[in-house]
Write a sequence for this structure.
């Protein structure tokens, strides 16, 4: 009889039920979309923020000490070097999968044919690595300096045997009259090298006065075989908290459990610490502006999405509240009759809630799939990539839908409980 | 011991005494009519006897138990187990068929039994209309479904509030005839009406005025059959 009543109530008031299902579907779809994006947005935003450049800078320990003592930039200090052969180890640390890009730098001076001095920096451009873990990575300046404007020519492509090639900064190119496809001879400290210019770039900074070449060319010029003087690392990080700040000051001050928590969380200080463990005599430090911007933007974006989810759920609850209350008012005579012939409040409440919950299940399922679609639209529109559906979204949306539906039913249930049969059966 | 007894029952709304120290007894198997003009307290009395409302003061003994002090939950149980209600406006659930409307009372009482519900409809002459919805039934047929619904749980007393108020003469006769049969079977009937023709077929009539029992009439020639007065 109960099922028969539910089924017939659905058929009789299908329009109202459809409206309730639609309201729930709207709320559920927004919640699904926002939660899916929110749970996936960390990686997506970090990928986007890679455009800001590296967030970790690794330099030799000696240079770092001089830099700290005399308050000068790392790039102005020379004398100590890192080993190029250890670069691959960066992808072997605990948080290896969070290292999304990195590039070594070796800077030397050279003399052009007209006798002017120029700073030559050797680095990776799109260096291909096959790691022991089976992972493959293309790392280098092409993505670490993605904001550079290539005014003519192209990026150096290490994967097509671009060996004796160079990219020249726009200011230097203009001053020296260098253009793409020109051959220029660089007289270095140790040897001379002739390179072909494949691209002119505009970085908007002092790098426009430099020449960028593959690492081995710079090492050849400076006689610095196998040496590099810094590494820039772009890593996906977790926003800092008190623990991370304490660890950044002195990891030795942490208790064992704090140390384990810190070490196993992708704080920028934790990743720096792990890089220092694998690169001999190195000091890894966070580029604070980028690291904190990433954390702040991520937190604010997630907060925004949580707020949208909460607001959409409140909106859905209000909509359900109106519709269910209207439905109970419309059915007041029927409810009054049920009470008159012996139905307890619990039985009638159960009937109404079951009807609404069945509607919520239909609306919730429809809304969930619509939400997955919305999430993909957001992913492709905002991040230019698909949003991965996290299984965690399903129970969270299910609980939200049930809480919102029950909350929306509260005023109607209160009305139902206070409904007196004599008032509706006699029209008084 | 009377099946139903009202002792000094009053119902007061502010300064209005809808019922004012009413004393009535209804014996087992009796057919009582309650009459009176509008505002005399008929519906208030019906609600109080039917455990739909509480009296402000006084005792209401149903089967020897005072129901005046019972909680709302206990009153619901009393309505479900001991009272069959029939309303002027039928109050059938529009999306349930005739037989399902009868089964609804069974559902809240015990276990729905379609066969038994069909038998109840057969008793009121509606077995062929069991699968019809209220909108497909005439007023008289709807009221007969209400009678079947009131009967289905074998209540100790049937309370009918203006049962013929919305019916034409022919259907009025059918419903009164049903009451006569129920009375013959030993059912206790309390019928609230403003229609003298319906009141006259009862064994006894209590007339209310201004919330008080004005007078009582015993039908010496009780037959249970309605006699229509033809106006000249």
């Amino acid at each position: 009889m109960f099922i028969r009543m539910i089924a017939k109530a659905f058929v009789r008031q299908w329009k109202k039920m459809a409206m309730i299902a639609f309201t729930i579907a709207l709320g559920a779809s927004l919640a699904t979309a926002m939660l899916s994006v929110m749970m996936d947005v960390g990686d997506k935003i970090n990928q986007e923020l890679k455009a800001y450049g590296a967030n970790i800078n690794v330099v030799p320990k000696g240079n770092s000490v001089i830099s700290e003592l005399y308050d000068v930039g790392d790039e102005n200090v020379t004398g100590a070097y890192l080993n190029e052969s250890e670069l691959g180890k960066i992808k072997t640390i605990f948080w290896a999968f969070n290292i999304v890009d990195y590039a070594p730098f070796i800077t030397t001076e050279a003399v052009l044919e007209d006798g002017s001095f120029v700073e030559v920096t050797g680095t990776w451009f799109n260096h291909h690595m096959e790691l022991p873990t089976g992972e493959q990575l293309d790392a280098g300046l092409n993505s670490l300096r993605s904001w550079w404007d290539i005014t003519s020519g192209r990026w150096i492509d290490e994967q097509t045997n671009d060996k004796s090639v160079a990219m020249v900064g726009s200011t230097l190119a203009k001053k020296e009259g260098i253009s793409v496809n020109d051959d220029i001879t660089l007289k270095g400290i140790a040897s001379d090298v002739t390179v072909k210019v494949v691209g002119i770039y505009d970085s908007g900074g002092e790098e426009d006065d430099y020449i960028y070449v593959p690492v081995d060319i710079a090492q050849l010029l400076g006689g610095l075989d196998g040496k590099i003087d810094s590494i820039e690392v772009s890593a996906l990080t977790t926003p800092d908290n008190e623990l991370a700040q304490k660890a950044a000051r002195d990891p030795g001050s942490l208790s064992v459990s704090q140390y384990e928590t810190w070490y196993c969380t992708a704080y920028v200080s934790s990743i720096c610490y792990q890089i220092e463990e694998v690169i001999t005599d190195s000091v890894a430090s966070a580029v604070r502006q980028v690291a904190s911007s990433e954390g702040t933007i991520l937190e604010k974006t997630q907060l925004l999405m949580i707020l949208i989810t909460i607001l959409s759920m409140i909106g859905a609850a209000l909509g359900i509240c109106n519709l269910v209350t209207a439905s109970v008012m419309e059915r007041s005579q029927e409810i009054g009759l049920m009470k008159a012939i012996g139905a307890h409040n619990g039985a009638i409440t159960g009937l109404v809630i079951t009807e609404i919950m069945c509607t919520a299940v239909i609306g919730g399922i429809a809304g969930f799939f619509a939400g997955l679609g919305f999430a993909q639209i957001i992913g492709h529109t905002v991040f230019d990539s698909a949003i991965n559906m996290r299984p965690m979204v399903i129970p969270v949306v299910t609980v939200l839908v049930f809480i919102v539906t029950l909350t929306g039913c509260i005023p109607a249930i209160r009305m139902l409980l206070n409904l007196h049969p004599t008032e509706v059966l006699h029209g008084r | 011991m009377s099946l139903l007894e009202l002792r000094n029952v009053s119902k007061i709304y502010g300064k209005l005494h809808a019922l004012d120290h009413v004393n009535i007894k209804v014996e087992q198997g009796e057919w009582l009519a309650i009459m009176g003009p509008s505002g005399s307290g008929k519906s208030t009395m019906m609600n109080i006897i039917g455990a739909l409302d509480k009296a402000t003061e006084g005792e209401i003994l149903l089967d020897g138990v005072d129901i005046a002090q019972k909680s709302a939950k206990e009153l619901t149980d009393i309505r479900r187990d001991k009272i069959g209600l029939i309303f002027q406006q039928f109050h059938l659930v529009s999306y349930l068929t005739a037989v399902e409307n009868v089964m609804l009372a069974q559902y809240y009482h015990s276990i729905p039994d379609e066969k038994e519900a069909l038998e109840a409809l057969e008793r009121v002459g509606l077995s062929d209309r069991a699968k019809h919805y209220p909108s497909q039934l005439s007023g008289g047929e709807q009221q007969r479904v209400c009678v079947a619904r009131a009967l289905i749980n074998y209540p100790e007393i049937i309370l009918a509030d203006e049962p013929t108020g919305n019916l034409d003469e022919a259907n009025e006769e059918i419903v009164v005839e049903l009451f006569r049969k129920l009375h013959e079977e030993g059912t206790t009937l309390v019928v609230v009406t403003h229609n003298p023709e319906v009141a006259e077929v009862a064994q006894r009539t209590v007339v209310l005025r201004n919330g008080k029992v004005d007078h009582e009439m015993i039908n010496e020639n009780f037959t249970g059959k309605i006699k229509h007065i033809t106006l000249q």
Q: What stands out?
A: Helices of chain B lie at 42-49, 72-82, 98-109, 114-123, 139-151, 169-184, 196-200. The beta strands of chain B are 4-13, 16-26, 31-35, 57-62, 65-66, 83-86, 157-161, 188-192, 204-209, 212-218. The mean pLDDT of chain B is 85. The first strand of chain B starts at residue 4 and ends at 13.
